[in-house]
C-alpha cells in the first residue's frame, strides 16, 4: 500500500501513523540534536541553541527545563545571562527543581510588569521608581498566593528557600510579665525592664514603623485613631499571641506619644504636604462653596472611606505578627524587615492615590492600581494567617472580653 502512493501526490505526512505522532517525533529529534549540540560545552548560550536548531528561544527553554527535570542534563539555566550551565554545581546541591522553575517564572513576570506597569500619581523621585515598586508588589502577591495553597508544614519548610535559618519553631516572649519601672533590689540595673524593652528588636521596629506611618498618613487625628486602635487590637488578641501582652507605659509612652510626635514633626520639618481626610465640605476656604457640595451622604460616605482605610491599616499590622507566629519567622530575621520595607514602599503611592480619590470632585472617578494591589495583598496575608493558624491558639477568649464585645 505504501508503494501505491506517488511522491508527487503526497508527502510523508499523509501516512496516518506519522501524521498522528509527528509532534512527538519532532520533539524526540530536537531532543537528540540538542543533547548532541550541548555535549561538548559546560556553558552555552540559549540564543545560540535557538539559532542552530531553528527553534524559538521559548521552546528551547521549555525543552531544557524538561530535560533538567528528567535528569538528562546536569545543570541549570541562568535567566539573567541567558545561559545553560552544565555540570558545574557543587556537591550536595539538589538538581534543578520545581522551585527553580517557579523562581524563573517569577523573574519573567517581574520583568514584564516592571516594563508595562501603570504610572501612579507620584512623579518624584521618578515614575520609573514606582513602576519598579509595582513590579515588586505583583511578584509578592503571586508568591503569597502560591504560599496560600500549601500545607502549613510545607509552607514553613518552604521558607527555608528564603532564608536557611527559618523552618524552626520559635519561643514566644511576653513583654508584660514584669511591668515595674524601678526595681531597687536588682544588682545590675534598677531600670532593667525599661532598658530591655527599649532595646528589644520588636520595640525598635515598632517605633520606626509608627514614625513611618506618621509620614505616610500626615494627619494627626487619624494617627491617634490608628494608634489607639492598634493598642485595642493588641489588648484583644493577647490571649492568642503572648508578645501582645505589653506594659502600660510601653503602650502609652512609646507607642502613642513618642512615635506619632516624632513622625509629625518630621513631616513639618521637611515642609511636607499634610493630607486632609475630613472631606472638602469641612476644609477651611475663604471662597464660598457650591451648595451642591452639602449632600447629606457626603459625611457618612467619607466616614466609611476613612474607616475602611483604618481597618486595612490595622489588618496589615496584625498580619505581621500572625504570619511571624504561623510561619516560624524570628523578629530579627531579614525576611521580616524586607516585608516591612516592601509594605512601606507600597503604602507611599497607595495612600497618595486613595487621598486623591477622596478629594477628587469628578462625577466618575476610580481608585488607583496600588490601592487594589494593597487590598489584595492584605486579604491574601489574612487568609494565610487564618488557614495556617487553625489549631495553634488553644486559649479561648476571656469571658470579660467576650462580654465587652
From TrEMBL:
Biochemical pathway: Lipid metabolism; Phospholipid metabolism; phosphatidylethanolamine biosynthesis; phosphatidylethanolamine from CDP-diacylglycerol: step 1/2
Superkingdom, natural source: Eukaryota
The reaction(s) this protein catalyses: a CDP-1,2-diacyl-sn-glycerol + L-serine = a 1,2-diacyl-sn-glycero-3-phospho-L-serine + CMP + H(+)
Pfam families referenced in this protein's UniProt entry, alphabetically: COPS2_C (PF25983), PCI (PF01399), PSS (PF03034)
Keyword Endoplasmic reticulum listed: yes
Domain PCI: 1-91
Its biological purpose: Catalyzes a base-exchange reaction in which the polar head group of phosphatidylethanolamine (PE) is replaced by L-serine.
Protein name: CDP-diacylglycerol--serine O-phosphatidyltransferase
